[in-house]
Amino acid sequence: MDGRTSIAQPDYQMFERNIAHLARRAKEVRVRIVDSISPSRDADGRDPDGRLYTGFLAGIDEGYLQLCRTDNQCLVLIDRDFIVEVEATGRVLWRLQAESEDPVAVKHLIEQCEHFIRATRAACHADA
């Protein structure tokens, strides 16, 4: 490697690249967030290990990740500063149509996420 080449990227670029990778493939993700870095429960009894949201990626900006929850099709804005883990569950949005007992719920998921999926696919092709 020469002195001008760097493989390191700013954390926001890595995060956005990885989110785009999952979104353009319409992968369901599990996002873990924490409100505090304290190793013990806070005064309200919340677990600092965080909360989990499971759903499909619907958008991203400088401050938030938008997720359409699989269980109730609600959109959730998640502050990027509190995300500690994003994990693909193995489920894919397009396969849910055939697997689901609730086609209306799947239709809502697709409507909420389709624009972001298309945008990430277009951005990927533009970079190639």
Q: What structural class do helix, strand and pairing data support?
A: alpha+beta
CATH class: Mainly Beta
Q: Helix count?
A: 3
Which segments are poorly predicted (pLDDT under 50) over 5 or more consecutive residues? Answer: none
What is the element string, with H for helices and E for strands?
Answer: HEEEEEHH
End-to-end separation in angstroms reads 23 Å
| Overall number of domains | 1
User: How many individual β-strands?
Assistant: 5
Tell me what portion of residues adopts beta-strand conformation. Answer: 25-35%
Mean pLDDT, as a whole number?
86
Helix content estimate:
25-40%
General description of the model:
This protein has a single domain (11-123), classed as SH3 type barrels. With 128 residues, the chain is of the alpha+beta class. It has helices at residues 11-24, 93-99, 103-127; strands at residues 27-33, 51-60, 64-69, 75-79, 83-92. Helix 2 (93-99) runs antiparallel to helix 3. Strands 4-3-2-1-5 form a five-stranded antiparallel sheet. The chain has three helices and five strands. Helix content is 36%, strand content 30%. 20% of the residues are buried. The model has no long low-confidence stretch (mean pLDDT 86).
